[in-house]
Amino acid sequence: MTFDILLLLLAGFLGGVLNSLAGGGSFITFPALLFVGVPPIMANATNTFSSLAGYLSGAFAFRHELKAHKKELIIIIGASLLGGSLGAWLLLIAPEALFQEAIPWLLLFATVLFIFGSKINKWVSSLSGKHKYASQFGAVLLFLVLLLVCTYGGFFNAGLGIIGLSYLALAGHSNINAMNGLKLVISSSVSLIAIILFIYNDAIAWFEGFVVLVGTLIGGYMSAHISKQISAKHMRTFVIAISCAITGYFFISTYF
């Protein structure tokens, strides 16, 4: 038990640092929860719970940038709550064995998003510049894209921030600070509604979740100091290496 606590604290700490500096903390925290014996669906729900504090504090930090987007925030929060609840519901009704088989593919998808996220965002930005959506059809299409993004986030939290940024680029945003703030609002809203459903269905491992949460808070706080010692580029390289290794491990353990 002591080893499990130390492992989860360390995973939470590393996850908090990574989320603050480069993203990708779920590549550490989610497998750690599985390693200590939390069932896959419960581990995913618990990971969402442990990530919420970081999303909320991050969104609060961008509160001034968000003031200029009050009308859009209503639509974003509404879609996030709807999509997040749908994704969480799909997770809860999924058979444990089916979700376990899906884990390698979900991690692979999140890994690809992490590696190529900036290129995807640039491509989406150029696309939105060439094909400006007009009329009600364009608005409906954008809302459906946002709903799909949030449904994914409610089902599997890893990679949500990256595809959230892609949606915002598609919607025509270019101010990176505002985009980060809106992205964190999406992540916060999706996670919050998903957690409510997870609590109602008793799908959160509270003890393990709180241990990871403590670790993420410490890691997030220490990230300012660590950023002076290690560049974000090196942190990103570390995340890519870890995510590829973990994804490969789950493919081997699941299918071989």
Average pLDDT value?
A: 87
- How many strands appear in the DSSP assignment? 0
Share in β-strands: under 5%
Query: Which blocks of ≥5 consecutive residues have pLDDT under 50?
Result: none
Straight-line N-to-C gap = 29 Å
Determine the number of helices (DSSP H or I, runs of at least 4 residues).
11
Quick recap of the structure?
Helix content is 86%, strand content 0%. The chain is an all-alpha fold. The protein has one domain.
Secondary structure blueprint with pairings:
Elements: H1 2-21, H2 26-35, H3 40-61, H4 63-66, H5 70-93, H6 96-130, H7 135-155, H8 160-170, H9 176-200, H10 206-229, H11 232-255
Protein architecture, described:
The chain has 256 residues and is mainly alpha-helical. The protein has one domain. 86% of the residues lie in helices and 0% in strands. It is built from eleven helices and no strands. The chain has helices spanning 2-21, 26-35, 40-61, 63-66, 70-93, 96-130, 135-155, 160-170, 176-200, 206-229, 232-255. Helix 2 (26-35) runs antiparallel to helix 3 (40-61), helix 3 (40-61) packs antiparallel against helix 9 and helix 6 packs across helix 11 (232-255). The chain is globular, with a radius of gyration of 18 Å. The model has no long low-confidence stretch (mean pLDDT 87).
Using brief descriptors, characterize the structure shown.
about 260 residues, mainly alpha
